[in-house]
Amino acid sequence: MQFRSLPKARVVVLLLALVAPLTLPLPAVAADCEFVLGFKTLRDLVNADESRDKVGACLDSERYNPENGDSLQHSAGGLLVWRKADNGTAFTDGYRTWINGPQGLQARLNTERFDWEAGADVLPVETTGYSDSEHGFTLQVPVGWANGDPPGGGIVSFTGPEEGDGARPSIVVKRHGSGSNDLETFVARAREAAVAIVPGYVPGDAGTTTVGTLPGWFQEYAVEAQSLSTRGRQTFVLRDEHVYALTMTALASTWDHHAPLFRAVEQSLTFTSPAPATDSGRPTLTLPHTEAQLSEARTNLVATTVGTTVLFAGGGDALFGSPSAVVDLYDGDTGRWSTATLTEARGLLAATTVGKKALFAGGLADVFESSSVVDIYDSTSRSWSTAELSVARDSLAATAVEGKALFAGGEDAAGKTSAAVDIYDAETGSWSTAVLSLARQFLAAASVGGKALFAGGVDEASQSSAVVDIYDGATGRWSTATLSQARDQLAAISAGTLALFAGGEDTAATASSVVDIYDSATGEWSTATLSAPRRSLGAAVVGDLVLIAGGWDGEQDRDVIDVFNAATGTWSVTTLSQARDSLAAATAGMKILFAGGEDDVGTSSAVVDIFDLPSDGE
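User: That's the sequence. What structure does it adopt?
Assistant: Structure tokens below.
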């Protein structure tokens, strides 16, 4: 099953490949080149193949190898040419070889070796420099490799010529938040993720390396997928609290040919210093950070805190949509984890805490089966009970105010957007209902100054909404306001007298960087901006510090965390250990936890980022 969230296109991509040795092109020499055996025949072949003319000008710089009788030459057009004892001439672009000799004209991949050819490790391939000023690194890449759109989260990718069955060798550079200066921990996590992403992944030996002057880690791996056997090498470079991953992949049958080139290019990777500025030029805030793991990887889960215990409940598998009933409990006093189980597995549910009780309501239990179940955890007795919503629905929002828990909006099993509000009174244990001014789902909720605010969402016409419904906990009366921009899948959090509604996306599925801020002390609204537009993000607060983390920007998941100081009105940034969206966020004492979610390739995450915040809020 798949959750009925507003989807983001996901393509499970095998992590890609590296680059090649360092022989610069020689200057062109204008002349009639037909004196070279087979030259005209080769040129006609290349042209007939509707390829660009790779021959260029005449050959020059002949070098004789007495060990095997080869005469090695270069052409200015990027084609390497060598002759074997005058009985044949071979031409190669580094990946394919054309031979004109005693057996006539032949064309093969370099991986289909000829007995008399030189080994792959001595075949120079022309390279050219690639420079990325935004991230401050340079890299040598093979001439003729295509520079295409990188996969999600990628900085740059290059692909070589097709090698059969549509497979191409490739090179990708990606950047990840390291979460620490421990490369071994990062690589272990990356390896676990690769197991989930790539069926048949078999890791090889891994160890430390040095790339330029920076510490690095490498691992090699093999993959059996879609009837293709591939091999790869990944190199992770630690730099300025980020890890740059250089990943190289090729068919297993061509690996011996590419491996020496890959290793050479690995050593061509260099970084400038200092590192480029962070998003929007905001200062970076360094916070003590550790990591943990949920008992089960999942996305679209929810979190709430009762006392100093955080409960992460429900969710599901991002790839297959299988809902989960797991509840992971984190004890903020001891740091220990335990588990419990919801009465019904479901994702896209809502959670809030009122008094000593944590409530988990509604959700999507199957493709067309919204749930009305409310699971209630009593932290005093550590027992569970259940209740029922007035209408079964998923994609709803929840918050608590003045001893009441409110569950608003959502979508029912028939696909109808709901305006229902279920209100639980913790003192009496009774339930009542109300109605939003506009039916909508994927809205966000926060409470501040005795008021509960339900903002944004998607209405019955599938349009993003700017409506804010405001419930006064003391009087039970409702009023409305308007966001500065209509959007859904936004995050909501309160700090002091402020309620923040951050990010989201509009009807056109364009991610937003807008932050609408409501001040309950004045009743006034103002706006700010995130460092990067994104939706399906998570938010939590300790004291005056609000952390708004992760999210999907329309092209890739982000690892950025925007940090807002409610006391000073200033912004800074830090990073998650793993870029992801649809994560859950909660507070335990002076700790903020971001758990689960899904990454760029649509794989559910079990990662929990735990940040220790300063007690003075600075």
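The radius of gyration is 29 Å.
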